[in-house]
Design brief:
Number of strands: 7
Strand order of the largest sheet: 2-3-1-4-5
Structural class: alpha+beta
Radius of gyration: 21 Å
Shape: flat
CATH class: Alpha Beta
Order of helices and strands: EHEEHEEEE
Helix content: 10-25%
CATH architecture: 2-Layer Sandwich
Strand content: 35-45%
Number of domains: 1
CATH topology: Alpha-Beta Plaits
Length: about 110
């Protein structure tokens, strides 16, 4: 039985976006919504997650569990789904600060007037 499926993408290749629009509508950039069978949904997710490149994607669809849905992710993301006693919670990876160039300890600066 077909169910509503939501897929959100960030910085994915154009051909992935084109493949998604064959099966789903795109009401906002990178957000795809459609009523898909489990077989089509799983095949689309397989293709998207295999060709994500430097981008990221999140798939949400109904599931017979406490929350009523399941969450799948692909690509490098700061938000990571974590199973907590059967509930999916979202954990954040720490924000990485840009590294500062190291200065040698014995380097001395002189000011001449």
């Amino acid at each position: 039985m077909p169910t509503m499926t939501v897929l959100a993408t960030t910085a994915v290749p154009d051909y992935v976006r084109g493949a998604l629009t064959r099966w789903m509508i795109e009401p906002a950039p990178g957000l795809y919504v459609g009523t898909l069978s489990a077989r089509v949904r799983d095949e689309l997710w397989r293709v998207v997650s295999a060709s994500i490149g430097p981008g990221a994607a999140v798939l949400v669809h109904p599931e017979a569990n406490e929350q009523g849905f399941t969450l799948h992710t692909a690509g490098d993301r700061r938000r990571i789904p974590v199973d907590f006693d059967g509930l999916t919670l979202v954990a954040f990876r720490p924000h990485e600060e840009p590294s500062k160039p190291e200065t040698p300890a014995d380097l001395t600066f002189f000011r001449s007037d």
